[in-house]
Amino acid sequence: MPEHGSKSASVGPQGDRVRSDLNVGFEPTSGALTVDVTSKVDYLYGEAIESAVRRVTDAFAVTTGRLTVNDAGALEWVILARVECCLRRAGLDGPPVLPEPAPGADVPRNRDRLRRSRLYIPGNQPKLMVSGGLYGADGIILDLEDSVPPAEKDAARLLVRNALVALDWGASERMVRVNQGAVGEEDLVAIATHNPHTVLLPKVEDASQVVRAAEILRGLAGEEAAFLMPILESPAGVHRAFDIATADPLVVALTLGLEDLSAELAAPRTTEGWESFLARQTTVYAARAAGVQPIASVFSDIENEDALAAYVHRERGLGFDGIGCIHPRQIPVVHREMAPSEAEAERAVRVVRAAREAEERGLGAVAVGSKMVDPPVVQQAFRTVELAVAGGVLAEDWDAEA
Amino acid sequence: MAVKLERNAAGRKVPLDINGRESVPFKGVGKHRPEGSKAAPRVASCIDYPADGDKRVASLKEALLRVGLADGMVVSTHHHLRNGDAVGNLIFDAAAEVGAKDLMWFPSASFPVHANQIGHLDNGVIHHIEGSMNGPLGAYCSAGKMRGLGVLRSHGGRWQAIQDGEVHIDVAVIAAPTADFFGNANAVQGPAACGLLGFALADSIYAEKVIVVTDNLVPFPCLPWQIQGNNVDCVVEVESIGDPSKIVSGTTRITQSPDRRRIAELAAHFCAEAGIMRDGFSFQAGAGGTTLAFAMYLAELMRAENVTARFARGGSTQHMVEMLDEGLIEVILDGQTFDLDGVKSMREDPRHQDTSPFTSYNFHGKGNFASMVDVAVLGATEVDLEFNGNVVTHSDGRLLHGIGGWQNCLAARCAMLLVPSFRDRIPVIVDDVTTVCGPGEMIDVVVTERGIAINPRRQDLLDAVAGSGLPIRPIEDLKAELDRICGVPARPTLSDDPVAVVKWVDGTVIDTVWRVG
Fold first, then answer.
1. What is residue A298's DSSP assignment?
2. Looking at beta carbons, which residues of chain B come within 8 Å of A134?
3. Environment class of A57 (CB within 10 Å of its CB; exposed 0-12, middle 13-18, buried 19+)
4. Per the record, which residues fall in region Disordered (chain A) (predicted)?
């Protein structure tokens, strides 16, 4: 007899142009389960692929039906995700079979880390994810929202979950952008316990959305719950920026999405950006007031490095701490432009040294030369030094000569 | 088929008899010196040729009759027109018409367009191919359908084989973008202009008979002459020698792949940090997307540090020409021109010199340029823990690519392989390469997106980049990471039925390609 209530299902891309991915199909039959694997790499991994498939069918206790795998060199974590998704689409259920964790999969999150650059990677394109950790971005965002078509949300969710386990993200912050609404809540449930460092919440217009996400994450991951970065992409969201930024202690940064915002404003996005000036300023003010990082929108013209540099320069000037990237080649430009100038770095070093000296001598006030320096300036100087080191303006061992 | 095999100095089993000729197994780098006098065609006399210099004949078929094509002869063609070439196919169609059988095709390289020859292999016109076999021809050879053994040689090895008599060409057929009726020819003019004809030069000198085929006949004298009419027997005018749009073959685009750009950037930084990139240095870069990106990043670093290269060897492209124009390179020594900007530069700029495998690669030259180059960047299908490189077969043993100048370029002071660490789950760094094309002692650096492995034999390079911040890693370490990412691969089983051999630059046999399936 066919598995109770199962139906035919298919997941994953098909055709000659597919690379590093696979298609999985399931047909209910009354006979014992058969697994047919066709793979471009069968001479190297034929047995490994079949065994990965069987691990999932075993976990789902599938005993009948026909499973067909058409593989174009997908890595094991992709195979596991696609087979699981196919079986779920077929109406079957079982516990996930997770890949082996990569070194670094358990790196702890860091609230105050640098977030100068964040690289968006589509959550349904495993080929693009594999090297994500190599490009030196401060953060990698596996995107489940805009880059994934509605019919693929379930598949991408499992791919992203497995990518959080199986991929080495290097020094990059492990970020995920989930969907809005109910789909987004399913996303949160799927990823919560796999050490996402920060979750981006799209189109937040009300503090309650943040509270709800925080509840779900805390409920599943407790103390290890991911940080949150709400995205403001509507006039209503911008209007409530401070409430959103202070909605929950898990919020570490506030960002905005200018494409959607411009559409709702009925003011097309321009290079000068006057239509979003208030939104950008509001985001910076609200974030700073709430003690979280203000992060600027993405820059989408990947060919134009000069325009990107100008954009980063301008947003940094408004007070933003970071920029969204959609191609790895944007990352070095962002880091270069986010770095303080040598003069700024030198000034900051003088303040930092004075502050350390004051602390050693047990003095309450910090002075550079004959001038007193206020605490916010001291705090900013530490930040500037960190940015200068990260941006290569100061040597790692800048204080060795002191 | 019972073949006598012997294990060579690379540890590979190779046949001792290749197409009825005794062969020498690879002895190690720099261990073999063929002896005797250089080969030569029979003496010709000018009184046997038209005094007015007009050597035109009406058709390819007539030309083949005129030069006395007979069964079992060796017929050579050249790959300057790459995948746009028509002549390589037309000449065998004509050979079939005159009823020739069992010919050996000796191309300087073949392309997918030459799948046409499969018909001639099947119908007996072609006995076997000694030259690169890609795409459908590679599959045909891999399947064991060819009657003789394929022989893969480097561009330099081809010249070596011609010069020391290993291969005697009966009829050379030269596709010429421009020619006169006497047979002088060049490739800088005409609708199919492709830059130069260096790969046909040896054939024009050493073949018994030479046929020039052109679609752009100009009045005598054709200037400049890259091929001398004094070596040519007859000239055939055809409507088209090939499709000029396919000269570029899509190879001259800088890669957009983030991984490949990262590889190229790491390689360029390596050259700077290792002190290779210094005033007056030289480099070799081909037309693959990654090596083009390498040249782009190198140019940025050269600009920033105010460094000029004395010469670059290519594979010229628009990008290399721009570096010449900008003054970053003083001279281009061009072995094959990949785009129309390259052709124009070769035609108009005296600093853009055409070369041949004789000047660049020939084992029997009194020196050649390849070993004078500071750094060469190359691709590979596989590289192993001993740094042996493979460029001709896929990991399943199928014949995929020719050698080109790859083996010859390994002679550079620093030979670097720019490769992704894996391709669609197939590891590029492996325990043992499927086919040894380059011995590990000649491969100095492997650059992948996950780090740079330096051959432990090159302590000088290891020292030079210590503390540079570049991701230098032992090759075993990269391999271990791949085992984790891709899974430990099974070892594909190959047959023990040879279908082709790979020659080293000195004419010895370095490895065997086995039948698949």
1. E
2. 259, 262, 449-450
3. buried
4. 1-22
| Higher-confidence position of A262 and B390 | B390
* Candidate from A45, A75, A135 with C-beta closest to B258: A135
Shortest Cα–Cα distance, B430 to chain A (Å): 12
The topology under which CATH files domain B49-130+167-246 is Glutaconate Coenzyme A-transferase (3.40.1080)
Indicate the helix (H) or strand (E) that contains B150: strand B150-152
Residues 6+ apart with CB under 8 A from A315: A280, A296, A323
Would an 8 Å CB–CB cutoff place B486 in contact with chain A? Answer: yes
Q: In this structure, which topology does domain A9-89 adopt according to CATH?
A: Ribosomal Protein S5; domain 2 (3.30.230)
Query: Where are chain A's structural domains?
Result: 9-89, 117-338, 342-390
Of all residues in chain A, what percent carry a pLDDT higher than 90? Answer: 83
A2 pLDDT more than 80? no
Cα distances (angstroms) measured from residue B105 to each of B109, B169, B203: 10, 10, 13
| Cα dihedral B44, B50, B55, B56 in deg (nearest 10) | -150
The pLDDT score that the predictor gives to residue B2 is: 64
- The stretches in chain B having pLDDT less than 70 are 1-2, 248-252
Please report where in the chains the tokens 């919560």 appear, as a residue: A192
Say if residue A185's pLDDT is above 60: yes
Answer whether A40 sits within 8 Å of B424, measured CB to CB: yes
Report the half-sphere exposure of B291 (CA within 13 A, side-chain side).
25
What's the Cα-to-Cα distance from B121 to each of B30, B117, B128, B140, B516, rounded to whole Å?
36, 6, 7, 10, 18
d(CA B443, CA A157): 43
3-state secondary structure B278-344: CCCEEEEECCCHHHHHHHHHHHHHHHHHCCCEEEEEEEECHHHHHHHHHCCEEEEEEEEECCHHHHH
Tell me what pLDDT residue B250 has.
Answer: 42
Encoding tokens for residue B320?
């290399």
According to DSSP, the residues that pair with A140 across neighbouring strands are A119, A174
Answer whether A102 sits within 8 Å of B484, measured CB to CB: yes
Instruction: State the Cα–Cα distance between residues B157 and B154, nearest whole angstrom.
Output: 5
Q: What is the pLDDT of residues A300-316, one digit of tens each?
A: 888 899 999 999 999 99
Which residues 415-454 of B are in CB contact (within 8 Å) with A? 423-426, 449-450
Residue A351 and residue B218: Cα distance in Å, rounded? 78
Residues B134-160: b if buried by 16+ CB within 10 A, e if exposed: bbbbbbbbbebebebbbbbbbbbbbbb
Query: ipTM, 2 decimals?
Result: 0.91
Into which CATH architecture does domain A117-338 fall? Alpha-Beta Barrel (3.20)
Question: Both tokens of residue A264?
Answer: 């709702």
Q: Among 3.40.1080.10, 3.40.50.720, 3.40.1400.10, 1.25.40.10, name the CATH number for the domain at B258-493.
A: 3.40.1080.10
**C-beta of residue B319 within 8 angstroms of C-beta of residue B292:** yes
Task: Summarize pLDDT for B68-119 with one digit per residue, the tens.
Answer: 999 999 999 999 999 999 999 999 999 999 999 999 999 999 999 999 999 9
User: From the list A40, A131, A329, which residue is nearest B449 (CB)?
Assistant: A131
Tell me which chain B residue has its CA closest to the CA of residue A47. Answer: B490
The whole-angstrom separation of Cα B443 and Cα B449 is 18
Work out the widest C-alpha separation in chain A, in whole angstroms. 88
At residue A299, what is the residue type? F
Beta strands in A322-361 (DSSP E): 322-325
Nearest to B342 by CA among B218, B496, B187, B184: B187
pLDDT for residue A365: 80
| Residues sharing a CB contact under 8 Å with residue A52, sequence separation 6 or more, in sequence order | A76, A79, A80, A83
Closest residue of A to B482, CA-based? Answer: A75
